[in-house]
Every structure is written in C-alpha cells, then in structure tokens.
Amino acid sequence: MNSFDHFTSAPTHSSSLFLSFEGIEGSGKSTQIELVEQYFKDKNYQVLKLREPGGTSFGEKLREAILHSETPLSSLAEAHLFAASRAQLLKEKILPALAQENTIVIVDRYIDSSMAYQGVARGLGSEVIAEIHRHSPLNYMPQMTFYLYIDLETSHQRQQARGNTKDYFEKENHSFYQHLIEGYDHCASVFPTRIKKIDATQSVEQVNQAILKELPHPWN
Ligand code: TYD
User: Fold this and answer.
1) Would you say 145 and 36 are in contact if contact means Cβ atoms under 8 Å apart?
2) Ligand 1 centre from 20 Cα, in Å?
3) Span between the terminal Cα atoms of the chain, in Å
4) Distance of CA 175 from the midpoint of ligand 1 (Å)
5) Whose CA is closest to atom 11 on ligand 1?
6) Phi, psi of 73, rounded to the nearest 5 degrees
7) Which of 13, 171, 205, 211 sits 20 to 30 Å CA-CA off 104?
8) How does pLDDT run across 97-121, given as a tens digit for each residue?
9) Model-level pTM greater than 0.90?
10) Cβ atoms of residues 168 and 45 within 8 Å
C-alpha cells in the first residue's frame, strides 16, 4: 500500500458533485470559481462555495491565527492547523451538503494546498501530509480538482498589479513559490485522474472554457 492509497472520493448523492480549485497566488482562482458557481446556478443546482482555511466559525479563527501570525509557525503546526480547519469544514458543511441532491460544493483550496505549501514548499514531505489525512473524514477527496497553473513571472506580475498588503505566505520569496509549483506538479502526478491542470495564463474566458470542458458527465 503506498502513502496515498487511503484517499478516496467523498461520499456524495449521485446528483451532487465536490470540486476544488488550487493554484499559487495570482492564478485567478476566485474569478474562475465565481464563473463555475454561476454556470451551476444557471442549471438550477444548489451551490455551496467555501474557502480554506476557514468556512466555519472555528475555521475562521484558525485562519486568522495562521495568516496573521506574528511569529513564524512550525511547519508541522501549520499542517495540523490547516487539517483541523478542514476536518471541521467537512463535518459542518461539506459532507452534509454533499448528502443533498443536486448540490455542487466548490472549495477554494483543499488537501493539495497542504501537500504543496506544507509538504513540498515547507519541506515536511507529501507523505507526512498524507499521513495527517489518514482518518475519515480527512481522507475524503473531491471528484475533481482544477489546478490553475501559472508560471512564477506571471504570479509575480499579477501580485504587483494587485498591490494589496501581503499576508503570511505572500511574503515568501521566489524559491518558495518555485517549490510550490513543484509541489502542485507532484500532486498532479500522484492524482492524475482527479487533478486537471489548466493553463491559467490564458484569458479569463479561455480558462473558463477549459474548466467547463473537463467537468464530468452529466454535469458538463
Ligand atoms: P488566501 O488569502 O485564501 O489565499 P488565496 O487567495 O491565494 O487562496 O490565504 C490562504 C493561504 O493559506 C494561501 O497562501 C495558501 C495557504 N494554505 C496553506 O499553506 N495550506 C493549506 O492547506 C491551505 C488550505 C492554504
């Protein structure tokens, strides 16, 4: 049994779907998530849009604690805090919603973020992240994950154009971001069926079309 074999698709009603979006800063996740949300609303699905870390009142407290930490956190502490927020989100929101019919749950970041950020960029190892997610419900995966791929230069330019104040991870340097990209590529090789890698340097419309084309039947 390899380190990733315990992961399995989350239980869902047959008419419902669990999707996640991944990518480094500037990849355009929020815009694409809104477009996919609208696509499903137009088809009369119930859509639950969530973000990680956060999405529950406990998770939002953890989000604040991590992203506005005044001191550098231990990588293992980070990994466990993200996992704690995720477990609560699964229990309170994701699993109850997926049990309903005609429901689409869309999460902005999920386990692959922990694999890329804490596992690879922080150097804990993706096997350690997999181990933290060994037990139910943390071993539940989305049916499909869209990894919006952009190169380092595009990420840098988009972040500069935004000009927002930087949070905990956005302060990291180029080599951290390079490792993140390697981390996501590693995830895509470990989970080739679930993860769809989309070229997010294209226009908003082109990226949206590429995503919709990948949606599984009968949701496409
Ligand atoms: P957020 O402001 O939501 O970033 P973004 O808009 O890029 O999604 O902040 C979440 C940050 O937390 C982001 O930098 C990625 C990081 N993160 C991890 O390091 N590990 C995780 O498991 C998750 C879910 C997020």
Assistant:
1) no
2) 13
3) 34
4) 17
5) 169
6) -85, 155
7) 205
8) 999 999 999 999 999 999 999 999 9
9) yes
10) no
For residue 191, the tally of other CB atoms under 10 A from its CB is 17
Q: How many helices (H) and strands (E) does the chain have?
A: 9, 7
CA 121 to ligand 1 centroid distance, Å: 13
Residue 154 in tokens: 């595009």
Which pLDDT value is given to residue 206? 98
Do the beta carbons of residue 154 and residue 148 sit within 8 Å? no
Tokens coding 81 = 């805090």
pLDDT tens-digit profile of 154-180?
A: 998 998 888 877 778 888 888 999 999
The token pair at 179 is: 């490792």
Classify 100 as helix, strand or coil. coil
27 lines ligand 1 (CB under 6 A): no
Q: Which atom of ligand 1 is nearest to the CA of 111?
A: 22
Question: Taking residues 22-31, what's their average pLDDT?
Answer: 96
Q: Tokens representing 35?
A: 């477009």
For the CA of 25, the nearest atom of ligand 1: 7
Task: Say yes or no: CB of residue 25 within 6 Å of ligand 1.
Answer: yes
Q: CA 102 to CA 58: how far, in whole Å?
A: 27
179, 120 contact by CB (below 8 A): yes
- Best residue for ligand 1 mutational test, from 108, 109, 114, 162 (most atoms within 8 Å of Cβ): 109
